[in-house]
């Protein structure tokens, strides 16, 4: 396989946010392991994220050298009205600057086209946040594939909500509706629908998403970080009803096999990986709750306090990742923790301030459940680790992912977040947190969820093996692209 695909050269162009960059560095490893020449295009500040992620990959499964190149383009901070150095979504000083960030994405067409001209790749896989990439690829006569970074379920569900506007027929924000035309009688509420859809708001983001939908229709197809066995009904729905070509090639995180690869994803961890593993090694199997809300969500101090109190009241052991690190203004001020909390939790609870080696932790046998904001990478990493979840969606398409976990897969308990809120999150009280975490970890229902999650993890593993659904789809994609090049 390695030598057959030498002619194929894939350009990968991820959106500048960790939730999009992490799966793309895994995707690069997968393509390269199949002998495909792979180039990641990014800006200078984000380039080390990729070079570190791929540093441990020197050979593919056949022992051949693998080829992943990283090419950089200048990030137009100044032109987009962003402060210098603000080149990743998680470094926005205020959520209000998100519009400027998306404006910057629109300014990357010319530099990308310059690289397309110089390198003449045979395919462009570009993030959904670059709608103009379909036209850019067309100029050079190459196929453009879209990467959304989410599930088939979320793609199908959000399309139905956008198309049929079921929230218009409800009398209140909290009255549930069934998503029309979507298989499975999936329920959600108006409050959980993104504001730019339910309130028909015209802003930079809503315009961009509209353009993205139009560009997707004209694109060659999509690549999805999922596996067929996880959501067959929705994978079929996307392909047959929405009529687009799609290749499922996930869970992408499973391409990281050793501890070094699992520990470095996106950023250097704020805890020594050996220290973290030692802590986990001292715990009983399935006893630890892992709590993390991804790379963007930031809760306020009162919410953090409720999380602390909820965890303490559950009596369970935990690892809790809090996005407060050395770069935060309030560093040193620990007023988000209840008094004496860390002393009381000594040996029982580990707080990681900053960035955790998430996949390494999730894959450890001591971890028994995952409290997640339902970002798709985290959700799928939890599934790949065979874990039941407490779902706590905040923004983006996270409420759809919650419905997949709780209503379709039945491997999760909803904490009760009611409202789609940009970045900061709906407030959830400590009693609800204690209740959901206990429900996930203790008792018959917990055991049933864990058993179902384990079956999915095994299916995920098999999907990535030779002959498995994701492995076969990746090869089918490579063959199709090769036949065109
Ligand atoms: N992640 C991590 N350590 C952290 C927080 C996040 O490794 O402390 C990784 C996580 O494993 C996942 C990604 O960052 O791969 C977050 O993506 P996701 O789609 O879950 O959420 P987002 O950050 O886009 O909201």
Task: Name its key features.
Rossmann fold, six-stranded parallel beta sheet, single chain, alpha/beta, UDP_glycos_trans_CS, 485 residues, 2 domains, disordered N terminus, binds uridine-5'-diphosphate, 15 strands, seven-stranded parallel beta sheet
Low-confidence stretches: 1-6
What sort of overall outline do the alpha carbons produce when their principal axes are compared?
globular
Q: Biggest β-sheet, characterized? A: 7 strands, parallel
CATH architecture of the largest domain: 3-Layer(aba) Sandwich
Radius of gyration: 22 Å
- Count of individual helical segments: 19
List the helices and strands and how they pair.
Blueprint: E1 9-13, H1 18-33, E2 37-43, H2 47-54, E3 68-73, H3 98-106, H4 109-119, E4 123-127, H5 133-139, E5 144-147, H6 152-164, E6 176-178, E7 187-189, H7 195-198, H8 204-218, E8 221-224, H9 232-240, E9 246-248, H10 259-263, H11 273-281, E10 288-292, H12 301-314, E11 317-322, H13 341-344, E12 349-353, H14 358-362, E13 367-372, H15 376-384, E14 389-391, H16 398-408, E15 412-414, H17 430-441, H18 444-463, H19 469-484
Parallel strand pairs: 1-2, 1-4, 2-3, 4-5, 5-8, 8-9, 10-11, 10-13, 11-12, 13-14, 14-15
Antiparallel strand pairs: 6-7
Helix pairs in contact: 1-2, 6-9, 6-16, 12-17
The structure holds uridine-5'-diphosphate.
Residues 18-19, 22, 265-266, 292, 294-296, 321, 355-356, 358-359, 375-378, 381 line the site of uridine-5'-diphosphate.
